[in-house]
Design goal:
The chain has five helices and ten strands, in the order H-H-H-E-H-E-E-E-E-E-E-E-H-E-E. With 229 residues, it is an alpha/beta fold. It is globular, with a radius of gyration of 18 Å.
């Protein structure tokens, strides 16, 4: 299953205030063609993504640090036994929760670390083994990736979220890399979205390519998760 590039969708001159167009019974949703509905959803997601990212960038650094510690504590409760499990974390950017200290701690308890890598544009991510202290190099979007290219399949993969809804769907950055990746991960692999509770929204208007998270963890806990394990 491939995820169409939201960033490559139709360009609109200005963000739209058109939620009424997306809700059945509030503006003739039934009158829209599938293509029009899809274009409207992508347009809404782009505006919502910009709004949420602006709010996230405004969170003070000390508050983000406190929230990251709280998220780490909830993850320890949710995932008490990670010895021998391959865990893929994301490298934090744009004020995402920084879980690198937690990552180092679980590796010290026997987990196996990995980072996601864009090996090919518009293709699923690959995962390369990495632990703190090993060399990194600049990858796609200048995000650090392991210099050593040793591919592995994660047992648990973390996905950063810009926004999320009560059904466990995430609003990402629009490139589609995580959705493509989650669609091809082997059965039984678990995917956890990580973000801040203030960015829970009513719905992302999920489309067929969107993949539901197994759990979503914020500083408020994992109660927002559709399922736990």
């Amino acid at each position: 299953m491939s995820d169409p590039q939201e960033d490559d969708a139709h360009d609109f001159a200005s963000p739209a205030c058109f939620l009424h167009e997306l809700s059945p019974g509030e503006g003739g949703m039934g009158d829209l063609s599938p293509a029009e509905r899809r274009a409207n959803i992508f347009r809404w997601r782009r505006a919502e993504r910009e709004r949420l990212l602006a709010q996230r960038m405004a969170i003070p650094a000390d508050q983000r640090a406190v929230d990251a510690e709280r998220i780490a504590a909830h993850l320890d409760t949710l995932l008490p036994a990670l010895e021998g499990k391959v865990v893929s974390l994301y490298w934090p950017m744009r004020c995402e929760p920084d879980l690198r200290a937690w990552f180092a701690a679980i590796l010290g308890r026997g987990a196996i670390g990995a980072l996601p890598v864009v090996a090919e544009k518009n293709a699923p991510l690959v995962f390369h083994l990495w632990q703190p202290g090993e060399k990194l190099k600049r990858g796609f979007w200048n995000i650090p990736v392991p210099e050593k290219e040793e591919a592995v399949t994660p047992d648990i993969a973390f996905a950063p979220i810009v926004g999320f809804d009560a059904e466990g769907y995430r609003l990402g950055y629009g490139g589609g890399y995580f959705d493509r990746t989650l669609a091809v991960l082997p059965a039984g692999r678990r995917v956890i979205g990580v973000g801040y509770s203030m960015f829970r929204i009513r719905t992302i208007y999920p489309l067929p390519h969107d993949i539901r998270m197994d759990a979503i963890v914020t500083e408020a806990g994992s109660a927002d998760a559709p399922t736990t394990f």
